[in-house]
Amino acid sequence: MQPVDTDSNLEKREGKSFVVSPTNRKKIDFLLDLEDGFFDINKENKKNYDGNVLKEELMIPPSDLCSILGTTLANVHNILKSNGIKATKIGSRTFIPSAEVRRLLQIYGHRYAEEIISFICTKGGVGKSTSSHTLAIRFNQLGARVLVIDTDQQANTTTAFGINEGQLYCLIDIIKGDIDINDSIVHITPNLDLIPSNIDNSALEKYIHSNPGRLDLLIMEMVKKIKTNYDYIIFDCSPALGLLNSSILMACTRVVLPVNPNEFSLNGAAKTLLWIKDITTHFRSRTSTEINIFLNRHNASKKSSDEYLKRLNTHELFKNFILDSFIRENEHLSRRINDSQSIFTEHKSSPAREDFDLLAREIMGLKYPPSSMEKSQ
Ligand SMILES: Nc1ncnc2c1ncn2[C@@H]1O[C@H](COP(=O)(O)OP(=O)(O)OP(=O)(O)O)[C@@H](O)[C@H]1O
Ligand SMILES: [Mg+2]
């Protein structure tokens, strides 16, 4: 047993004396050290990512285009041929690279929107990272140029993309001006980029708080430099409604809230919606942000799941924002992400694949066949 009442263990704070045990002394010293160097954690070890994760361009099978173009597989093949779309053979199967999908959909009148999308909800574990990661991959497969910015210190999306190194440049380094945003970008695969996260981002709230400036411009100015390089910039946010997320919200064109079929999640979504309305009403002058809510982890075997879906579709607070698409509970989705893979980087059907495909297309405005399609059939 260590002595606790010697002079060396006496600590004076705000005029009062405290007895501090050696164990607690160590903890306090550690926290004070951390506080002193809070914004410079391992700064000297920071580096750019020098690996390449997925390397190859993402591709889709022609069958994925049937419902987008509203036609049969045989006709999709005719369309590919008549438009000179270059397909790639892997074994006996045909795939269309992302850039060629882009070219085809543009021929058919699709315009890739310039969007900044944030996945925000104060409730944790509802599927923000899962959706950011899965939709980013699907958007890219459907021809979009995508950047994902992982802002959450948990770095789940970063890990999902197969990046496990802790000391890569991340959002806080950009905001502090230690690195140019362009130099923090990791190229995952052609036209799919990531600004990774790590534990250093835990200091972001405190940094923003102690460096007062225009909160509405902080993220907006940051993305301005790279905006035209992408169709979609996706922010995966931590489960909080703090300064950082406020700044992200003020920069984005669309905010997406995943909701799970349970009461806590609905409460979290309601609080987040009120916060969004508050921020966008009081702090924003330019065009309004589109708000989307979707149900994630729907389980058809539970009556309550349908009841929650119904409540979302009819409740005054939610009904104007709810998307048609919802995502079913699917173990395979979770397993793929835990293995730093995606349901879209394997060519195997699954309920989550179907659901996320519809969700991606609903957000991209690719839900219905383009009108010019009729002419080409
Ligand atoms: N449709 C689904 N079916 C099965 N598991 C799912 C589904 N959606 C998400 N999950 C799982 O739920 C867990 C939480 O998801 P995720 O990490 O995406 O939530 P989050 O909102 O980002 O959490 P946090 O608030 O902590 O950042 C993960 O283990 C994920 O694999
Ligand atoms: Mg997350």
Supply database-style keywords:
eight-stranded mixed β-sheet; binds adenosine-5'-triphosphate; 377 residues; 13 strands; globular; 2 domains; three-stranded antiparallel β-sheet; alpha/beta; binds magnesium ion; 40% helix; Rossmann fold; 15 helices; disordered N terminus
Structure notes:
With 377 residues, the protein is an alpha/beta fold. 40% of the residues lie in helices and 15% in strands. It contains 15 helices and 13 strands. An eight-stranded mixed beta sheet has the order 8-9-7-10-6-11-12-13, sandwiched between helices. It has a three-stranded antiparallel beta sheet with strand order 3-5-4. The termini are far apart. Bound molecules: adenosine-5'-triphosphate and magnesium ion. The site of magnesium ion has 6 residues, from helix 5.
Main sheet, how many strands, which sense, barrel? Answer: 8 strands, mixed
- Tell me the CATH topology of the largest domain: Rossmann fold
Q: Element order, helices and strands?
A: EEHEHHEEHEHEHHEEHHEHEHEHEHHH
Instruction: Give the tally of β-strands.
Output: 13
Low-confidence stretches: 1-7, 33-41
Query: Number of folding domains?
Result: 2
Q: How much of the sequence is in beta strands?
A: 15-25%
Secondary structure elements and pairings:
Layout: E1 10-13, E2 16-19, H1 22-36, E3 59-60, H2 64-69, H3 73-82, E4 88-90, E5 93-97, H4 98-107, E6 115-119, H5 128-141, E7 146-150, H6 156-160, H7 171-175, E8 186-189, E9 192-195, H8 204-210, H9 215-224, E10 232-236, H10 243-251, E11 254-259, H11 263-283, E12 290-298, H12 303-314, E13 327-328, H13 331-338, H14 351-364, H15 373-376
Parallel strand pairs: 6-10, 6-11, 7-9, 7-10, 11-12, 12-13
Antiparallel strand pairs: 1-2, 3-5, 4-5, 8-9
Helix pairs in contact: 5-14, 9-10
The structure holds adenosine-5'-triphosphate (ATP) and magnesium ion.
Magnesium ion (MG) is lined by residues 128-129, 152, 154, 156, 236.
